[in-house]
Amino acid sequence: MSAEIRYRPLVAALAALTLAAALVSLTVGYARLDVAAALADAFAGRSTAAAVVLEQIRLPRAALGAMVGFSLGLAGAALQGLLRNPLADPGVIGVSGGAALGAVVVFYSGLAGAFALAMPLGGVAGAVVAALLLYALVGRGAGTMTLILAGVTVNSFAGALTALALNLSPNPYAAYEIMFWLMGSLADRSLPQLWLALPLTVAGWALLLTSAPALDALTLGEDTAASLGFDLGRLRAQLVAGAALAVGAAVAVTGAIGFVGLVAPHLLRPLVGNRPGRLLLVSGFGGAIVLLVADIVVRLIPVHPELKLGVATALIGAPLLYGLIDRMRREA
Amino acid sequence: MRIAARGLVVRFGERAALAGLDCDFVSGELTGLIGPNGAGKTTLLRVLAGLQRADAGEARYDGLSAAELGRAALARRVAYLAQSGLSHWPLRVDHVVALGRLPHRRPFSPPSAADRAAVEAALAAAEVVELRDRPIGTLSGGERARALLARALAVEADMLLADEPVAALDPLHQLRAMALLRAAARKGAGVVAVLHDLTLATRFCDRLIVLAEGRVVADGPPSALTDAVLAEVYGVTALRGERDGEPFVVPWRAAPPAACN
Amino acid sequence: MRGSPIAGDGVAPTTHAPSPRKVGGGRAFAACVCFAFLAAPAFAKPQRVVSLNLCADELALRLADPGVVKSVTWLSQDPLSANLAAKAAALPPNDGHAEEALTYDPDLVLVGPFADPASTALLRQVGAPVVEVGAPQTLDGVRGQIRDLAAALGEPQRGEALVADMDARLARVVVDPSRPRLTAVVLRPNGFTVGPGSLVDEILARAGLDNLAARLDIAADEQVPLEVVALLGADVLILDRDDNGAPSLADAALDHPAIAALAGRMTIVSLPARLWTCGGPEIVEAVERLAAAAAARAGAATQ
């Protein structure tokens, strides 16, 4: 029996769930906040402490959670369509790790101070390099083993260089900040960071979402897709650029949060009849919901200091990855 | 449509897959492309479909080069059915067949009535209507081959280039698929099919092109497939006969080495 | 580098471990130093002093004659984290290791509270007198430490003068008892705050401020979420800002727009850690700055 659901209602439902999760995220935090009062104050222009907390701390956290989650879910679905492999996820294949390296180099060298957009652009540049490296290793139609190994390679290298860069920083705190970059966090992000990341992210979304028909055609292999009129070289460039923009800008603000781009497409693929084109938008919203829920959970767990978000997503995502690999091995 | 290939040369490293090939293909004909393994049949089809660039020579479509025709127009007018029946994701059969309409559809607009009609016609012609809800991964090899053939038919192209379309099918479906391809040719499309079964080729094709070592060795009606050609190209002798006015050719024995004249 | 034995109070800039509690009280160390002093043979003023600790560096440079101090740690040469950088820059730097001290054939070596016991033992073995400079937790402890170190250096009058100067300046900081006590919260890089019962706590009290960390049920130096700081409703927000030059996420945390947005409701004072990390005379400057902020706040409140 097919699990497929009609597309428009599915998208609408997921969008509504995303909004709901974001609203719940606004009400969760470390201090008791009367959200209604804070909202009233904010709208009336009264800058009370509650309004400041809502506007400057909780709102960017919820908005970024949705934006970054959408980017990761969308990029994961797009990469899986391109590589024709359900294990491709920006974290697993090293794109997030590369983005973190790019952002770290820009931030700790002081470049970010010179020119605000430098940091998200650094993340994008790192992501592009990682994606190109991966594509060179893996080429077309990646077999699972090759893909995972290539991802491990890129991740290890990027992680090591990130640690090196942090250790070389003259600031004494830098060496201890690796957990943020490799595991990610939404804590105390700010509105300026949201605005900074937004344009690059949206550009990435546009590139990724418009590749839907081509990804559908790729289901039947590169030759058939080309015969159906799709320029494969251009498609690859479009997907690499789109994923790098969306993921790179996100990682520059929140660090590398893994597995969202694996969990969301995996759970939602049956609902779109396995069609890669339709999965894109659906997986984006799915990723947003996953990340927002993880962020809510992380704040409710009474662990001090706050658990890094990537830890929560990895606790769910890594066992899922294991199960997927196992299933694919058995089916092969 | 007429596709004219002139002087096609394709090299892979040292080896020449096509070594200066001249050929014409026209609509309204079912052309069988036969020859031993490695003769260049798949390479020729890929060049004609615009998937492989020739190192020398070119193919022209109604007088236009592929570049002049444009990627979109080429996709609408020439359909390609690959040899390997790949589907990376377990899509439903009707969704797979609907992929054949992509060259005709505007991106992100819903399928038109013409699109839906073409899909239905293709499903019926390939006899996979009852399988339309099934994920393609759950089908047998033969059923999958028919589903992918339906996908190629759904393009409603002027020219269908099919690489071994019936190789995986059982005898009944082989006969029906060949009849289908001939009917498509009668309706005005051109069909070029790579075939290994010599009887199917001689029975159903209007024309046979025999390839060996990247060159055309014989080109003509099925009667052009003489014993001499069989011996030279395949190295076999064959049993020949006729039933109800239709020929059959059954490879029988390895041919004796060529006698010195 | 903060977090190593040559820094002042051993506060480790990690994102996970809270900074370790300052060890010991000034009084206990004063007693040890006095005992060591009394147990020594006839006292001659040390002529070759090597300091292996940032806080010891600063006190030694203030109390000893020029030329007596032969080497100080590299930390005290950094103007951003040290108070006497210019003076210290003229001297050869060391990394806080006992072996380095020995190259100067010292007759007095100053070490910090987290010195490696093996290094200290080595120094004593070689016959170099070692004096441990502690991390006082009270203002009295600070006074005691200055006096003790001055005695060890053979400059007791300078010690007294320094303490007298401190006390004079402190006396000028007047807290109006009729005014309601203002509340304050300290925010350090990575969102760490300062717990009750520390030297900083006493500095706050001396400036007429109540440390709200006590009300938060925070026993030690812990991380406090920014939300909580914002909603605490403190009158004064004290930022341990270093403007190190080189960026880090920890420092950037203090630049969050929410803090600027709160500037209307809280008085924000920038107070670099170097003023209160070491139990030295700079503490008075910290008290003065805080008192000024408190007065400004109270003045604004009455308008």
Structure characterization notes:
The complex is a heterotrimer of chains A (332), B (261) and C (303). By secondary structure, chain A is mainly alpha-helical. Chain A is 75% helix and 0% strand. Chain A has helices at 7-27, 35-44, 49-83, 95-108, 111-114, 118-138, 144-168, 178-183, 191-209, 212-218, 222-227, 232-254, 260-268, 276-300, 309-331. Chain B is an alpha/beta fold. Chain B has a single domain, classed as 3-Layer(aba) Sandwich (Rossmann fold). Helix content of chain B is 31%, strand content 30%. Chain B has nine helices and twelve strands. The longest helix of chain B is centred in the C-terminal third of the chain and has 16 residues, at 171-186. By secondary structure, chain C is of the alpha/beta class. Chain C folds into two domains: 26-171, 3-Layer(aba) Sandwich (Rossmann fold), CATH 3.40.50.1980; 177-302, Rossmann fold. Chain C contains twelve helices and nine strands. The longest helix of chain C has 21 residues, at 282-302. Chain C is globular. Chains in contact: A-B, A-C. The interface between A and C is large, with 38 and 35 residues.
Short description:
The complex is a heterotrimer of chains A (332), B (261) and C (303). Chain A has 332 residues and is mainly α.
Give the tags.
heterotrimer; B: 261 residues; alpha/beta; Rossmann fold; 6-stranded mixed beta sheet; C: 303 residues; 2 domains; 11% strand; disordered N terminus
Structure classification of chain A: mainly alpha
CATH C-level name of chain A: Mainly Alpha
Give the N-terminus to C-terminus distance of chain B in angstroms.
44 Å
Radius of gyration of chain A: 20 Å
How many domains of chain A?
1
Largest sheet of chain B: 6 strands, mixed
CATH superfamily of chain A: ABC transporter involved in vitamin B12 uptake, BtuC
Count of runs of 4 or more consecutive helical residues of chain A: 15
Q: Which chains share the greatest interface? A: A-C, 38 and 35 residues
**β-strand number of chain A:** 0
In N-to-C order, the SSE pattern of chain A is HHHHHHHHHHHHHHH
By CATH, the superfamily of chain B comes out as P-loop containing nucleotide triphosphate hydrolases
Structural class of chain B: alpha/beta
- Give the CATH level 1 class of chain B: Alpha Beta
CATH architecture of chain A: Orthogonal Bundle
Content of β-strand of chain A: under 5%
Shape of chain A: globular
What would the principal axes of the Cα set say about the shape of chain B?
A: globular
Order of helices and strands of chain B: EEEHEEHHEHHHEHEHEEHEE
